[in-house]
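Anyone? Bumping this.
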Amino acid sequence: MITKRIIPCLDVRNGRVVKGVNFHNLRDVEDPVELAGYYSENGADELVFYDITASAEGRKLFTDILSRTAERVFIPLTVGGGINTVEDFERVLTHGADKVSVNSGAIKRPELIYEAAKLYGSQCVVISADIKRVDGAFRVFAKGCREDTGLEGISWIKRCVDLGAGEVVVNSIDTDGVKQGFDLELLSAVCDAVNVPVIASGGAGCLEDFITLFKRVEKVDAGLAASVFHFREVDIGELKREMLRNGIPARI
Amino acid sequence: MIALVDYGVGNLFSLACSFRAIGQEARISKDADEIYRADRIILPGVGAFGDAAEKLKTSGLDEAVKSAAKKGTPLMGICLGMQLLFDKSFEYGEHEGLGLIRGSVVPIESAIDRPLKIPQIGWNALIFRKPSKLFSYIKDGDYVYFVHSYFASGCEEAVTAETEYGAMLTASVEKDNVYGCQFHPEKSGKVGLNILRAFCGEAG
């Protein structure tokens, strides 16, 4: 049976992992390659790297990081951040990324999804959407969650999937950083609307939040989080064992 | 030397890295002669069957792969590269494959007994059906990483493992010196590396 995936996410700036990381047994906790290796050894099913660099030098550092990661980590690697053109896809795919996640780039120019899916296949095009409730409706936000695009969340995601996105990362701005659990209502709505894998993001505060997610939103495929893993509030191995105890398929 | 056949489909970077990780020299190659003379051959591939089959043909590498397989060179197809080993595929029309293993490639949708997401993306368990040299260092039930919308059918004699996704789907095949994995060993952690290791050492 196919398993539910657990995905740690690393924000990388100028070749270093940002958002404090609290590991005692790593030599260099800010080295994305080392951290990726650690997660891969400890049960992560996949990894996401977000490149939050703005400069050209930072970009170059990032692609070096990707290549070095691909040399020692043999699980799927998704890359996001600053993806606006098919050349950006090419740049990360030839340096070791398996999938590419687009967010603002697709809002600016939705055809990017179609062009990339045609060139590289839908399986490597991931749409990532930051969604927040405005007057009770789901709205898509851009520019690191600062700008309301006016787009309705569920129909935007459907449109992206129709254009060729093979996977969806749903990040709830309302639950992100609050650590009170995933946005089950939003995730259920997305899962009902599309027939591609849906990855839940935003809100994980403890192990139980993942169990609740997979039990309450049966169609969700994966749970993504950053700080709960980085700060060891949730140990992936322990989480997987708890999933199995709850009848949720997990890879151990 | 292991030749990774580069016919313009898919990114061979990770694959090359995974062989390096198990201490094997793998070369990404577009050279028919080099591929023909290689000790082992990997046929990778992602995307659509028709497009890939066409590119393999126009690159002229299809003949090199076929002749090498016929003289006994161990050959492993991965993902779409595995599907190309079969007679034909019904992905968007009907396309001819290399014909090295009898069978055809059909949509997962046509086989499953309940509505499931297509493609199958994620980690699923191998269910061994027959002993295979590729399984020397792994065990029944180990998880590997799949990304596919089509699967090989009508190839019962060659099936060495299946996976359950609404139906029993072909996960790996073996016929003499020709091997195929529907999943991505280069993305399947230690289990995947152990499959590649078996292909390099024990297999063939």
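Late reply, but here is one note on the structure posted above: The longest helix of chain A spans residues 56-70.
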